[in-house]
Amino acid sequence: MADENEVKDPRIDGIKTKIRVVPDFPKKGIMFQDITTLLLDPKAFKDTIDLFVERYRDMNISVVAGIEARGFIFGPSIALAIGAKFVPLRKPKKLPGEIIFEEYELEYGSDRLEMHVEAVDSGDRALVVDDLIATGGTLSAAMNLLRRVGAEVVECACVIELPELKGRERLEGKPLYVLVEYR
Amino acid sequence: MFAVENGLQGDPRLKVISDAIRVIPHFPKTGIMFQDITTLLLDPVAFKHVIDIFVDRYKHMHISLVAGVEARGFIFGPPIALAIGAKFVPLRKPGKLPGRVISEEYELEYGSDRLEISVEAVKYDERALIIDDLVATGGTLSASINLLERAGAEVVECACVVGVPKFKEGQCKLKGKPLYVLVEPSQFDELAL
């Protein structure tokens, strides 16, 4: 995590205060982590991107994969700053052309994440980006897609982690970097 | 207006951008030549050209709000917002945004859909830019303009990477608002297969 084992970067607190927690959304019992309020503050949004860019710019990342839809808000700016390609991982039937898909569990039922097969290959070092990690199901599916085409997943990066849901344990030993935790 | 008519004639970046967009015939259904911008995103140079051209145009227009249409507007909007120091406001499918929202219905070929905006995201009279990857009928952008205006913003312009040529003729406006487009749709090149 961004503030473990070292002096916390002063930008982190500013980011955390901009995330709005909305109780009982989308249903009762869920404390929704709303990042749209972070996006309303240009300095805090820029700090968020800068923290990721500073971490990844020298790690030879060739592809940033962002998970639809909120991963699309953070991933492309990181990709542009570090000179990597951006690959959208999408809900079913949005991507044209040849795709592969990975199913993942929801609380009730399942969903699917899709990726263009030609977008990534075995020479690529990948970063997976989403706004938040909860159970880790979506990130795990994303990692599988990248692995299946032979890419190396270097790390997963999220703005927020809900550590009590233990999503970190579903990443099969791959490192996770987050800016803030919500307990 | 198209970028080539507005000071960017001969700019080599426009061809790089256009060449990077892949055409998929008959997606999502027969007869539609789908303009696939994901190949543009795989080319960091071409992707950066898109953002640079938009940023150069908007950085001195006192835009305080960039609104992006879900989902591909989320790819182009935030980098522009960050570079010009504006906030980013997502325009989303129903039920995704928490808190107080207003929604606007728009027509699809069969049926309709809705877009939502968080009312708390917009200050009265602030100057807004709306971004999407492509404009075809203009239905989604028109709904977006309505949402921003109902929330109290002044829409300065709509901007897209790709736009169909009908927006080239005449005024090139949508609900009275200017529309700025980088390139026309790419043609399907059967020989490239």
Automatic annotation (TrEMBL), chain A:
One of its GO terms (biological process) is purine ribonucleoside salvage. Pathway: Purine metabolism; AMP biosynthesis via salvage pathway; AMP from adenine: step 1/1. It is found in: Cytoplasm. Residues 40-167 form the Phosphoribosyltransferase domain. Keywords: Cytoplasm, Glycosyltransferase, Purine salvage, Transferase. InterPro entries: Ade_phspho_trans (IPR005764), Adenine_PRTase (IPR050120), PRTase-like (IPR029057), PRTase_dom (IPR000836). It is an enzyme of class 2 (transferase). CDD domains: PRTases_typeI. Its EC number is 2.4.2.7. GO terms for molecular function: adenine phosphoribosyltransferase activity. It catalyses: AMP + diphosphate = 5-phospho-alpha-D-ribose 1-diphosphate + adenine. PANTHER family: ADENINE PHOSPHORIBOSYLTRANSFERASE, PHOSPHORIBOSYLTRANSFERASE DOMAIN-CONTAINING PROTEIN. Homodimer. Belongs to the purine/pyrimidine phosphoribosyltransferase family. HAMAP family: Aden_phosphoribosyltr. This is adenine phosphoribosyltransferase.
